[in-house]
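A quick aside before the break. I want you to see a complete sequence-to-structure record at least once, exactly as it would be stored in a machine-readable document. Don't worry about memorizing anything.
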Amino acid sequence: MSLVQGRQSFEEILTDQLDGLKSAVLAAHGSVLEDLQLRVQGGCCETPMIHELRETREQRVPRERLSVEEEEELLQRGPQELMILMDSAPGKFMEETLSPGPVDRWYDLYMHLRSKSRRPPVAEPSQLTILEPWTAKFSFKALQKGLSRPMFKRRPSLTLGDTMLDKRWLFRKITLTPHGNARLAWTFFGLLAICWDLIFIPLQMFDINAEVDNLINVVSVAIFVYWVLDVPATFITGFDRAGILEMRIHEIARNYAKGWLGLDVTVLVLDVMIFVVLSFNTESESGSNDSMGSFRLARALRLMRFLRLLRLHKMANLAAEILDRFKTDSFLLTMNILRSLAAVLALNHYMSCAFLGLALFAAEGELTWIEIAELQHMDFLTQYFSALHWSLTQFMPATNNIAPNTAPERIYAIFVVLIGLAVFSSFVSGVTNTVNQLRQIHTEHFKQESRMKSFLTQKSVSVDVWCRVQKFCRLRILLDKMSLKEGDIPMLQDLPHGLRVKLHAEIYMPILVSANWMPSDVTEIDEELMLKLCDKVLLEKVASPMQEIFLERGECPEVVIPTAVPRQSLIYWSSRLKDYVRVEEGTWLCELSLWARWEYRGQLDTEEVSHYVVIPTQEFALAVTKAGGSLFQLIRTIGLLYIAKAESQDANCDGIPLTDLPLLSESDAQDVTDRAKRFGQLRLSPRKASNASLGGLFGGRRSSFNAA
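That is the input. The structure line, written in C-alpha cells, reads:
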C-alpha cells in the first residue's frame, strides 16, 4: 500500500514538472524566434535546444523500460531529491528515469510546434516616409520672390529691445555697448575712484604726515587722468532710451551734452586749477618765509577738492550696472544690506571728521573733547577713530566715554543725534524689508517643509527615515531651482515681441546653428527665418534624475539636443548596439525626424538633472515650408540626401546600425550640405543648367552628365 502511495506521489510530481517544462518550452520558443530574426534564414538553422535534443536522441543507446527493482530504488529517493534532480539536469533526469518514448515525443512535439508557427520575417531595410510639408510643391516664382526678400527689413516703428546702429562702419566698430565687459571693467574702476575720493577728500583737512600726503597726491593725479579719459569714453558708449538701445554717435553725444557733460567738465577744470595752484605754491614755499600763509592756502585749495564729490551722482548708476550682472536674488538682497551699511559708515566718516575738526581748529584757550579725553598728544589715527566711535554711538544705542564740551561741539552733537535718529530708523527698516524679501523667496518651500515635519512627527517615524526624508526634501528644493524653464516665469510672457525675439535668439541660435548639416552662412541666407525658428519652434525642457527622455520603438515627434549635461549623465541604450553610449552636450538626436516619420531606435536616460532643447518636427517643417526661399530648398535637399543615406545604411546589415545618434560625422555632413548647395544653384539658374554637371554635384564625372 505504501508502494502505491509513493508511486502516485511520484507521478504527480512528474506530471507537474512536465507541465512546467512544456510551458517553459513554449515560452522559450517565442523568445528564440525574436533573437534569431537576423540569423535564421528560412528556418534551416537549429537552436541550441534543438541541437541538444537531436544529439541526445541520436547518441542515446536504446534500452528497455526500467525493471521493478530499479523503479523501487528510484521511488525511494523521495520527492524533494527528485525535484532537485529535475531542476538541475532535466535531460539527465528524463534519460535515467523515463523510457525512450517520452523523450522522442517531446522532441517531435517541439519540432511540430516550431514548424506550425509563423516563420520569422527576413530583415529588410526600413522605408522612411517623408513628412507632408516637405512634399509640397514650390514654384520657381515663389523661390525668386523669397530670394528677393531683403535681409534687414526695417519696420516702420520701433519696439522695445531694438538697437539703433550708426550707418558709418567706423563708428559702429568703436561704439561700446553699455552692458559689455569692457564697459563693466571701466565702470568698476570709476566706482573705486569715487570711493577713494569719498574716503580721503575729508582727511585732507588735516595734516597727517608727509607720506600720506604724497600718496593722496599721486592717487589724485591717477584719478584725474581716469576722469579725463572718461569723457571721450562716455561719448562712444551707448545708452538705453525707453527700452531701445541707442548706439549712434550723434545721439550719444546729444544725450551726454544734455546730461552730465557740463558738470564733468567743470570738475575737471577745477582739478586742473588745483594742480596748477598747488604746484606754484610748492615752488614759492622754498623762497618765502610766510610758511603759515602758504599752509593755509594749500589747505583751502585741498578743500576745493570736495567739489569732486559732485560725481557721487554716478555712484548709484555705476553700482546698479555692476549689480545687474549678478543673477541670484539672495546675493542681490545681501548686497543691498551691505550697501545700506556702507552708506551709514560713509555718513559717520564725515560726521567724525567734522567732530575732529571742531576740536583741532578750535580757538586757543578752549577746552575741547580731545583735551578732556587726554588725546591731544596721540597720533592722528587714534584721534580719528575716537571721533568715529563717538559718531557711531550717536547713530546706534551704544555708550562712549567721549562727550562734547564747548558750545560748537554741543550744537554739533545735537545735530548729529537728530540725523542719527532718522538714519538709524531708515537703516533698520531697510534691513528688515530685505530680510522679509529673503524669506518670501523661500516661503512656499518653508510651508511644505513644515507640513512634512508635522506629518512625520504625527506618524512617529524613526530617526533614520526622518533624516532621509529631510535630505530628499532639501534636494528637491535645489532641483526646483536648477530646473527653471521659461514657462515657469510668467513675467517673460509679457515681454515685447522684439525683445522676446532677441532673448530667444541669444538662447537658441547657437544651438540651432550647431547642427553638422547646417551651413555656416545660414544667417546670411535667411536671418528672418532663423529668428522665427528660435522664437516659435525651439523649446527648452528639463529632465529629472533617473528619468527616461524617450523609449525605444515609440513615435518620435521631436529632435532632442542636450544643452546642460553634468558629468555626461545622459546614457543612450539601443538593442542595435553592443554597449551604451554617453551622450555629450550639443549632440543632435533623432535628426532624421526633421524630414521623415521616425520611431525611436533606442532609449535615452539621465542620471542627473539635465537640460535639453527640443525641435518639434511638424512645427519646424511647417515654418520652413511657409517661409520658402533658398533656405527652404537647401534644407529640403539636405533632408532628401540624409534619408537616402539612412536607407542605404539601414540596408547594409554588416555596417554601422541606424540609431537615433547622429547619422554623419561633421565632415560628411558638410559634404552633404555642399552638394545640396550646388544642386540649389542649378535650380536657381535653369538656363545655365546645361553648363552645370550633375556628375560633379553627386561625385561623378562631368562627362556622365554631358552624355546624359
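Two observations worth writing down. The longest strand covers residues 558-564. The chain has a mean pLDDT of 75. We'll return to this after the break.
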